[in-house]
Amino acid sequence: MSLAVGAASNSKNMGFDENREEGDILDNHGNENEAAEKISRQLSETSLYATEDETDDEGSNIELGPQRTLKEELEKDKDDESLRRWKEQLLGAVDLENAGETLEPEVKILSLSIVSPERPDLVLPIPEDGNPKGLWFTLKEGSRYSLKFSFQVTNNIVAGLKYTNTVWKTGVKVDSSKEMLGTFSPQLEAYTHVMPEDTTPSGMFARGSYSARSKFLDDDNKCYLEINYTFDIRKDWAAT
Fold first, then answer.
1. Distance between CA 53 and CA 56 in Å, rounded?
2. Given its phi and psi angles, is residue 182 left (phi above 0), alpha (psi -120 to 50 degrees) or beta?
């Protein structure tokens, strides 16, 4: 904008309007200066108003609607066929009997077992306090195995369920892993998950006793089960 004003002023100084008197030129310069000042003030005011509007937008808070339990949400539009089908596609098969009256989901680990092609499944007892007494299990060195578990979801959808495991030997952390399990809706039937197959280390330095901590958590880091336990790696499986 200022370049356009400057170009108009220069063209008159170069004599493109020779018939004008000197006083007229001075008057015109005066008018042009006034116009430039007016434009400058308008730009400043526009900039100020834009800044104030942007500040108001940044300061405004987004108001979220009221939170509803899963059961309330499913029953809210049950007479609308299209909405009901859309919610079924979004949420999957939800058992209303297991959709509780609270917003918080509940996950219960029902069983844990070690699966290996070398032996029958080793079912691990889950104590109420999550701390097995003494040695929880023994693995054979160099053996292939997987952790298999089943769990039930009630009340509400659990998002980002994951399993973490940390292992120490003689106080030194030797392994840490995390497995994302997914998002699950409440249902009467239990879910079953099998972890990727792993192989136990072997050799003299691998054998011995280990301590470990396993957790089942969701996206909000709510812990549904924490197990602190010890296990051994030996030359062979423990006798059954």
1. 5
2. left
Given a contact cutoff of 8 angstroms between Cβ atoms, the answer to whether 143 and 116 are in contact is yes
Interhelix angle 2-13/22-59, nearest 10 degrees: 180
pLDDT number for residue 96: 55
Q: 144 - beta bridge partners?
A: 199
| Mean pLDDT of the region 60-72 | 54
Q: Determine which helix (DSSP H) or strand (DSSP E) holds 50, and give its type and residue range.
A: helix 22-59
Q: Which has more pLDDT, 115 or 80?
A: 115
| Beta strands, E only, the chain | 106-116, 119-124, 135-140, 144-154, 158-169, 172-184, 191-194, 198-199, 208-217, 223-234
pTM: 0.62
Question: What average pLDDT does this structure show over 41-61?
Answer: 47
Residue 116, token pair as written in the block: 């290996």
Phi-psi region of 155 (alpha: psi -120 to 50; beta: other; left: phi over 0): left
Asked whether the beta carbons of 150 and 111 are under 8 A apart, the reply is yes
**Dist. CA 213–CA 167, nearest whole Å:** 7
* Single-letter code of the amino acid located at 153: V
Chain CA centroid to CA 104, Å:
17
What residue type is 165 in one-letter code?
N
By the 8 A CB rule, do 141 and 201 touch?
yes
pLDDT, position 31: 52
Share of the chain above pLDDT 90, in %: 49
Asked if residue 28 has pLDDT above 60, the reply is no
DSSP state of 72: H
Q: Which residue has the higher pLDDT, 45 or 7?
A: 45
Where residue 203 falls (left for φ over 0; alpha for ψ -120 to 50; beta otherwise) is left
